[in-house]
Amino acid sequence: MAIDDTERLTRPDGTPLRVLAVDDEPSLTELLGMALRYEGWAAKTASSGTEAVKIARDFKPDAIVLDMMLPDFDGLEVMRRIRADEPNVPVIFLTAKDAVADRVAGLTAGGDDYVTKPFSLEELIARLRALMRRSGAAAKREDAQLLVGDLLMDEDTHEVFRGGDPIHLTATEFELLRYLMRNPRRVLSKAQILDRVWNYDFGGQANVVELYISYLRKKIDAGREPMIHTMRGAGYVLKPAG
Question: Best label site of 27, 75, 115, 141, fewest CB within 10 Å?
Fold first, then answer.
């Protein structure tokens, strides 16, 4: 997914944000490390709870991606030990798809969020960005809000409201809506949207744009006067209702 350089998050002092990824699957931690570094962040990985606690002491992460099941002790114990030194560090738990009890336990014990395996990297990165903004780890921007009609988007917290009602979006839906909101009343072609939101060649499968526009319409326009309009043969346009 395309990330503008202007959207890169840093610490308030301008240095890279630090993220610790903990999982006992080497292929997964390698993938996570690459995705985090692609964001311009400093990343460290650990494959056990003991290693994670040791690294966290020196690294002082701004956020932790933490597998619930580790070979020595579980994610809850890792979080407890790390937070003894860094009480406010945000934690996103990785849990097995069917481990509902794990997710509940993680959030009850003070975890900030969770994703279930297998997960989308873009979704995880979006949640990390939102978490680090909310926690104050990331530098705040003055121009974080976009407003078109009664549709409001906060780019820092990833919150979206229409007429004051919260709208819950996936990471891709959010990026698509952000592009539309940054270009209100402007007709955007499928090719432009593909290039900006997905940033790679779908081999002519522009119907992915139609699919995600339909997802957005169900969430943004359902039961309300529509804001997202199809311009036949040209593309799509977002404009205030009425």
Answer: 27
Q: Which residue has the tokens 């890792």?
A: 78
Q: Which helix (H) or strand (E) holds 31?
A: helix 26-38
- Which residues are within 8 A (CB) of 59 and not within 5 positions of it... i.e. 6 or more apart? 18, 20, 44
Instruction: Kindly report the three-state secondary structure assignment for every residue of 93-152.
Output: EEECCCCHHHHHHHHHCCCCEEEECCCCHHHHHHHHHHHHHHHCCCCCCCCCEEEECCEE
Buried b / exposed e over 95-132, threshold 16 CB at 10 Å, is beeebeebbebbeeeebbbbbeeebebbebbbbbbbbb
Give CB contacts under 8 A, 24+ apart, made by 207-212: 209/236, 212/172, 212/173, 212/176
- Return the structure tokens found at 41: 């962040």
pTM score: 0.57
Instruction: Decide if 22 is inside a domain.
Output: yes
* Same domain as 211, residue 91: no
Tell me the residue range of the domain where 220 lies: 145-238
67 phi, psi to nearest 5 deg: -70, 140
Pairing of strands 159-162, 165-167: antiparallel
Q: What are 88-145's pLDDT values in tens digits?
A: 888 998 887 666 666 666 666 677 788 888 888 888 888 888 778 776 666 565 567 8
Distance of CA 2 to the CA centre of its chain: 13
Name residue, tokens 């709208």.
Answer: 167
Domains in the chain, number: 2
Q: Which residues pair with 231 in a beta bridge?
A: 235
* CA 186 centroid distance within chain: 26
How far is residue 11's CA from residue 132's CA, in Å, rounded to a whole number? 9
